[in-house]
Amino acid sequence: MEFANKTIHFIGIGGAGVSGLARVALEAGASVSGSDLKASPITQALEEQGARVSIGQRAENLPRHVDFVVATAAVRAGNPELDEARQRGLCVMKYAQALGELTRGRVNICVAGTHGKTSTTSMLAQILRGQGAGWIVGGEPLNLEASACWGSAPHFVMESCEYDRSFLHLHPSLVLLNNIEADHLDVYGDIEGVERGFADFVARLPRHGTLLYNADDPRCVRVARQAHCRRVSFGQAEGADWRLIGLDASSGFAQAEVSCQGERMGALHLNIPGQVYAFNALGALAAAHWAGCDSARALEALREYRGVKRRFEMLGRFKGAPVIDDYAHHPSAVKQLLQAARDAFASRRLVAVFQAHQYQRLNGFFEEFVHALALADRVLVMRTYAAREQGVIPGIPEQALCRELQALGVDALALENFGLAAAELDASTGPSDALVFIGAGDVNEIALELLANQPCLTRSAA
What we know:
By secondary structure, the chain is an alpha/beta fold. It has helices spanning 16-27, 41-49, 80-87, 95-102, 117-128, 185-188, 191-202, 218-226, 276-290, 295-303, 331-344, 359-364, 366-373, 396-407, 418-428, 444-453, and strands spanning 7-11, 31-36, 52-55, 68-71, 91-94, 107-112, 134-136, 148-149, 155-159, 174-177, 210-214, 230-234, 242-248, 253-260, 263-273, 313-318, 321-326, 349-354, 378-381, 411-414, 433-438.
């Protein structure tokens, strides 16, 4: 679908993904309007770019003439704008449907996997931006001017989300498959269903397309065996096409030699903590090579890579303790995060402030969360961010998590609200600590409050 000269209305225009789509629609020549529940720097930036943004959601926000409406996954029947659009017989698309239509005809590099999508997509966007590639990232990259850009070249880099089988609306030329683990079981049922979902996505590649897959992940390998297109592997496994040689993250920052089919491509040096980012970078390098980017230039771009907001983001220091914010919400990602924090802050007491994202995920991966969080010296467990859930009893799973951590010798405490957490951290934090705020919800608000009020924070739990 051609977006030039179209009029598009976005419900939830301030969201991470939808705001990026609105931006590229504007750059593609569309007239854009939209609404969100509250103003933000994102909505302000879209207004400055030419979008008409309404704060609050009302039926009258829809323009008299609109070609179609895009709604976030969070928008449900009963939303006045969605109901108005349907009453008027307008075409309503979910975010992924609209992204697929917008990028139909581009050379699409789709980054997929249970973990690492945002970081890998932003790495690849940074590498290819010099060639005029477009991109859309489900986060706020610290190096790029925006989370999305239409670009002037054929290549378009996109984060490809598996939730709700959204990625099946995309039209990939290359799929970069990082990993496959159990998640979104409300959609897929079990891990076998998750694997089939990724296989269905890979099957959307044309025969002349390319699958770039993690050779260290058995499920990725199985999916690759089913692919009817060119296959290129990356990882540590013997026989992988792209490999890291002599990987060393002992300083907290990964470095390694990169080889492709036995040929030395250059030295990888990252300036963000965590060994896992080296493997994200390896996939990005391989995809950039496929897109025609010189490896030396790609490696230099990765040396300058600064990460994404809420991915091991250093927010500041509280009473001398580094304060880290991270979006991790799957136990594997939590484990990788805390291991990276251990490497980066080896001499400090590691204090994790954890907020689970959905009770279904917390209960479904309970033991995995226990063992991941046990990497910390102290854990404050906040009430779960119950997105897309109703009818749950808060407090009981969090207390159970604390008991299991305490049985492993971890100092763990469950807290009912952010005020109590702020007061506890104000009373107990010292300059030899490191604070890591973990979760895809709003747990980072505690960190922001601590940093904003640090000269005058009282120990009140109000």
